[in-house]
Design brief:
The chain is mostly helical. The chain has one domain (1-77). The protein is 58% helix and 0% strand. It has two helices and no strands. Helix 1 crosses helix 2. It starts with a helix and ends in a 24-residue tail after the last helix.
Length: 77
């Protein structure tokens, strides 16, 4: 029984990856395939596919605090 679950999950994950790749491609195409936006296109496509699947969107990682010259980390407000 568990083997079947793994196979179904793997197939669904593969289908999602294909859908993400297609959406990222079309986003790049609309922009004229300008370089430097590959990651942004992929992440936007992931959010779109997750929204269509009803899954919660993956949020961007929080920004790291900037370091000062002496290595002391600034406090975030």
């Amino acid at each position: 029984m568990a083997r079947r679950s793994v196979e179904v999950f793997a197939a669904a994950k593969s289908d999602a990856r294909v859908a993400i790749a297609e959406r990222a491609y079309y986003r790049a195409e609309r922009r004229g395939f300008a370089s430097g936006y590959e990651v942004e296109d992929w992440l936007a496509a992931e959010r779109e596919v997750a929204a269509l699947a009803g899954a919660p969107a993956v949020e961007a990682a929080p920004k790291r605090p900037a370091k000062r010259k002496n290595g002391v980390v600034k406090k975030l407000k």
